[in-house]
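This follows on from our talk about sequence and fold. Please put the record directly below this note.
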Amino acid sequence: MKYNDIIFNKFSSLVSEGKLKPKKYKSKDIIFKEGDYCKYLSYILEGEVEISTESYQGSLEVISILKEKETFGQFILFQDKGFYLGDVTAKKPSLIIHITKDDLLNILSSDKAFLEAYISSISLESFKIKQQVKLLSHKNALDRVLFYLESIRHNNTCKIESVSSLAKLVNLPRETVSRILSRLEAESYLIKDGNKITFM
């Protein structure tokens, strides 16, 4: 069983037993405001959540979009002055469990399988953050695209949702990413067939 299934099953059973009570949110409900002190690990049983902030120019910047079986607050719950870095909003009707630090520690200490699954989840998220930092450290657009494609490569292939989604992931204009892919195809470095990329 995968670690995210172990976490989901554990939280679902605690809800069934009445030990945890999920909270319902309507679409566009504000769950937490930017700057609010984090008192919970929040787990999405159903729905979708957006974390966003306002730029200095006044435009809305989306930090992340989270779906069911994902958590938020996990990296700031144990900080002395942990606060939310953006507004947390329900993008659609959502069912969310809010777990206090003490309750989380009790759950972790009483269930070894859950503890291992939770640590695996945190480790993977931490690794992804470090990958993103390394990705953005590449100032050259070509290096940035290649680094990302290599990171999702399995054997000689990888799949992307679209050029637009790839551009968002590497934080570059779509036109720039499209030109880079065309250049790499012309140089016989890769072949792009729809959303499938094959390395030569």
Remarks:
- The chain has a mean pLDDT of 91.
- Strands lie at 23-25, 30-32, 40-54, 60-67, 71-72, 87-100, 157-159, 190-193, 196-199.
- DSSP finds six helices and nine strands in the chain.
- The CA atoms of residues 189 and 200 lie 5 Å apart.
